[in-house]
Predict the structure.
Amino acid sequence: MVETQNKLAVVILNWNGLKYLKEFIPILIKYSSIEGVGLYIADNGSKDESVNYLKQNHPEINLILLEKNYGFAEGYNKALEKVDSEYFVLLNSDVEVTEGWIEPLIKLMDSDSEIAACMPKIMDYYMRDYFEYAGAAGGFIDKYAYPFCRGRIFDEIEKDNGQYNNFESIFWASGACLFIRKDIYFKAGGLDGNFFAHMEEIDLCWRIKNMGHKIMFCPESKVYHVGGGTLSKNNPKKTYLNFRNNLYLLYKNLPEGKVFSLIFFRMILDGIAGVKFLIGFEFSNFWAIIKAHFSFYRNVSRFSEKRQKNIKTLFITYDYPEKKNFSIVYSFFVKKLRLYSKLYNAEKSDI
């Protein structure tokens, strides 16, 4: 059963996540049972008891059953086609919401029709005073299109002392809790299923920026994210997806005159990262980078079609204020600038 005509649909994509459903669905229901808000679980072909658990214990949840694991991106695309609402929230199954988390997001989106997407403050489930890796206080990219966040640069996580308690225009909103207009989601083409998982929300947000819309951070809403619910940060599969998908991201979205020079430079940096893995005896992660590059080469023709479609249908640029004019790699590893607040000087020097 799928309800229609909600103001907002909170949609969780589940794959063998019974543990997280038991822990977080009761909290979601407690703090999200608001008029005009529908709650949905899209099951990505789980083999555990997720579906039976939901049917027996939470009949108020609308179930969308997918016949197999389509991955994060295509799974959401197929699920959201079945949901009718003005806004979507794409919410990870390992996220704990808080009291009053929905209302500030709706208020922000209702305040400006040019805001296509936004995100709450994403905190660490275990270290609750600290930001969480996947999104923190809003996402940006550097001059070489490396993604980073306010509150998290690489593995350096900041404590939340209220330093980012301002509404901020950002480049990308985290897929852990992505609030987005339904019409914009589909006009932009949705999440790219070829990404399978990881960085697909950055790709979507980049296309939304190229459509001329805003993406915002909303500090008045807060959630807690476990992180690594499907793949841990050091899992070679995640390394493979991150390195491969970053190349996909660049090739699809960079404007003419930028694409080949930046991809070539990124390949050099990827090589340096591979050497670092070798030195640290992380051979599986080193091999994951090699496989990521060969996968990208094999799929260039497929993504060339997507790139040409973007060029024809979107206003593609690279000079957004949310694209920072420095190298986050150089700033972090060479200049030892580990906090977002320290990066202003780096931007002024145009590293």
About this structure: Residues 66 and 259 are 36 Å apart (CA to CA).
